[in-house]
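Q: Predict the bound structure with glycine.
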Amino acid sequence: MKKLNLLIIGGGGREHALAWKLKQSPHVGTLYVAPGNGGTEKLAINVPVDDNDANALCHFARKNQIDLTIVGPETPLAAGITDIFHTAGLRVFGPSRLAAQLESSKAFAKGFMTDHNIPTAAYATFTRYDAARDYLARQSGALVVKASGLAAGKGVILCDDVAEAEAALYDIMVQRRFGNAGNQVVIEERLTGPELSLLAFTDGQTVAPMLPARDHKRAYDHNQGPNTGGMGAYTPPAGVDDDMVAHIVRTVLQPVVTGMAERRMPYVGVLYAGMILTPAGPKVLEFNCRFGDPETQVILPMLAGDLLEIMLACLDGTLTPTMVQPLPGACAAIVMASPGYPGAYPKGLPISGVDDAEREEGVIVFHAGTTRVNDRLETSGGRVLAVTALGDTVAAAAQRAYAGIAHIHFDNAHYRRDIGLDG
Ligand code: AMP
Ligand code: GLY
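A: Predicted complex:
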C-alpha cells in the first residue's frame, strides 16, 4: 500500500492521542495536525489553521496531497466539514452534517431514540420558555435541564428539585447563558448509577466497539463541582464485561447505525454513546459523533492493530468487528487543568517536568492546552495535559499516572486525585 499523507483536525489531547497512534502505522507518510499543540508538534507538522475554518482546511488538504483527513472535534462536523471535503473529492473520516445531528441536536437525538426504541431518560423538549415552565410546574424529583445545541460539554444543568430546574431553565432560555444552543431545551428525568462511555467504529452498517471507558465529568474529587469536558478517564471499568458491551451494541449502537441508514443519513466514523448503568439497564444520556476526550487517551493506547487500516475499512464499507481488538491490561489518564477551569483561567504559565514524567514506566503525556514558545512549554487552554499510564489493573495504571504527575509543574495546576485508584 502506498504511504498516505494524513491531516488531523483539532488541537486537544484527543488529537495528540490520534496522532500518536496513527504515527505507529507503517502506511502513514507525512502527518499534519491543524492546529495541533505543543505535544503534536513533536510527532507531526502543526498547521496554523483554525479547526473551524473548513474551507481553509480543504484548500490545505488539496495543496498538500492529503490522502485522508481525520476530524477530531464536533463543531466542524456539525458544521458539515465532511460534506465540504466530499464535494471537493477528498477523503475524510467523520460523519456528515446530517449524521452529526445525533450530537449537535439533543432534541434530534431524543426523538431518534424514541422512534427506534433505544433506552434513554424520559424527557420533553421545548422551544418556548413559558411552555417549559408550565411543564416543570407539573414535575417532581430530580431533573436535568439541557441546552439542545452544542455547548462544549457544559450545557447540562443537574438539578435536585423543581425549583433548581426552574432556575436552570431561566438561565438557559431567558438569560441565554449558552447563547443559541439554548433556543431549544431538553428536560429529562435525572438517572442514577455509574456512567459508561462506549465508542465504536462504524462503516455505516457494521459496528465494531472499542473498549468501554469511564470519564469523570465533574471538576472536583468525589464528583463534586461543575461539569467539565472531562477530568480523567480509565479503561476497562469494573463490572462491564463482554456481555454488557454486546448488550449495548445490540440495544443502542446497532439500532442507531441501522436507523440512520434507513433515514438516508448513513453514519460513518466513530459513534460514542454516553450512558448511565441504571438498575433497569444501560440508558443513553447523549451521543457524540466523534472520539471522546479524554476517553481516546486511554482507549487508543489499548487498541491492538493499525488505526489507519480500521479507519480506511470504515470508509470502504469493509469493517469487521474482529479488526478492533483490545490489548490486555488497563489504562488511566488524569487531566491536569488550568486554575479556574471550567471557568475563566490564565494562559501562558510555564510548564516543567513533562520529560521526567514520561521516563516513569508506562507513562505517556498527551498534551491538550499547551504551546511551545521559543522551546519553552506553556499553558494555552483549560485542559492542559492528560497524564496517561498503562498498567496491569486500573489502579496500577492510575498510580503510575499520578507518579507521572508528581514530576510536572505549572502554577496552581488543578487535577482530581481520586481517579481510578479504587479500580
Ligand atoms: P450530556 O452532555 O448530555 O452527556 O451530559 C453531561 C453529563 O451530565 C453526563 O455525563 C452526566 O454526568 C450528566 N447527565 C446528563 N443527563 C443526565 C441524566 N438524565 N441523569 C443524570 N445525569 C445526567
Ligand atoms: N469526554 C466527553 C466527551 O468527549 O464528550
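A: The domain at 122-189 is CATH 3.30.1490.20 (Dna Ligase; domain 1).
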